[in-house]
# Entry
Amino acid sequence: MFQTFESHADPAQGRERVPLLRTELARRGIDGFLVPRADEHQGEYVAARSDRLKWLTGFTGSAGAAIVLTESAAIFVDGRYTLQVRDQTDAGIFVYESLVETPPAKWIEANLKAGTRLGFDPWLHTIAETKALRKACEKAGGELVALDGNPIDAIWTDQPAAPAGEVAIQPVGFAGELAKDKIVRIGKEIRAGGATHTVLTDPSSIAWLFNIRGADVEHTPLALAFAIVPAEGRPSLFIDPAKLGIEAKAYLTQLAELHAPAALEPALKALAGGAKVGLDPQLAPEWLRAAIVDAGGATSDLPDPARLPRACKNEAELNGSRAAHKRDGVAIVRFLAWLDAQQPGTVDEIMVASRLESARAKAGEDVQMPLRDISFDTISGSGPNGAIIHYRVTTKTNRKLAAGELYLVDSGGQYQDGTTDITRTIAIGKPTDAMRRHYTLVLKGLIAISTLRFPAGTRGQDVDPFARRALWQAGLDFAHGTGHGVGSFLAVHEGPQRIARTGTQALLPGMILSNEPGYYRPGEYGIRLENLIVVEDAAKVEGGEIAMHGFETLTLAPFDRRLIDAALMEKAEIDWLDAYHARVASELSDQVEDGVKAWLAAATAPLSQ
# Structure
């Protein structure tokens, strides 16, 4: 199993550890400290060593922050975690705040007392974030103080070691472009941005640029490293040599100068003599900027030049994703057919999640393309647990799939040719009319995105309302974005593309995104439906005057027809659903066993039947 189900959350952690942190802060002459859920690379998924927020508070979500002051503390989470954070942390220690509506900088401005010295670890906050935090502290009459060494590390006596997963080469057949050609291409982008060098801090960009994958982060094949890339010449890669076997070392030596991580600071100082180093203010840690400037060097704002090329998949990557989704579809159909055959109350969330992982493993074995990992911990929520948006089942929370409930399963696989992510909501027994209505409204949102045509320059925030229209008309909504970017055998959450109110990046051909509207009724049930989609090249619409982009749907799996109220759907929506189901049946029927094939035929029958 790639997933475990033990509970790692303990509200008592805050009661025990916050006083220890306050003692350490007092020793340093500091009145408070910022604790982001971040590592030096600002990744969503962090190694155990870097999960300081979880260690301090008990909160296990993938996004959040805390501020600990001398006499108070606050924890910040987004809409996905408003229920979870209350279960996992001590309300007697932490005040609960919205990461979106009242982010730390805004909270600091309103709550920090004059004269407060608020400490932060400059490795764990971006340049842009640090600027906002410093401004907020100054407005409140306080001071933001960069600390040398993280105070949590000083009190975390059994802190795990830094990860040292082995690096592997991603073959050009899957990558679609040689690393040496990518390096030349990125060098041109650096020069065009007015810089002589840039520092790549995002391991996904490093993995893409050098065509490597790693094993440092759970469920995401990344090697934690930094790279200095010049506009001309060979890059320098700063990576623990323990991660490099003979083959990987020989390969990378042809592309870059290899250094241990400790050599990064001297290398940055050496650039102070005439170089202009571009840093992405949204990604690069403040420590990098300070190290260069303190050495007399010059920096400039330069977006990570690998981000957009990485997001816009080439044909080899898209073909790999299509193959991965077909393989994944076989696993999902086998799983759904099995689940439908189980009597309500006889299986539980852990059993079902385990069965799904096994189905993915078998589908990979069938075609000699093994499942390398799951792409995130499976969200396996029955009844009220399905209403917890990022629910992670544990042995403590595990419950049976009972009659008259909904079961929500959000899962994905990591294959060498692609990363998958799919959500389906399934009726266990007979659904209520309210369940069917809410499910259909969510489905209408998914179809609206799937069928959308849009001109060049359209951003994710322009697209997001289409997924919500049917829900809004019913006075409903959901508290998360509609879609995130997805990597190619990389992170399941990839920027800069996203479909959300905050999605400012234009949607470009080749970008893979999720399409996942939802509805959640706390204490009762949750509904989310998710397909992955890819932005298609613009084409003229018959009778139209300008070319339009659209979406190709990658995911192949049926929706639960028992939960669809056709009376709420327009003819065009029913036509899309029937055509999609016909495609699912056509592509998967010859890949599954006879019993599953019969189930699939019924599950993908036209809605009129």
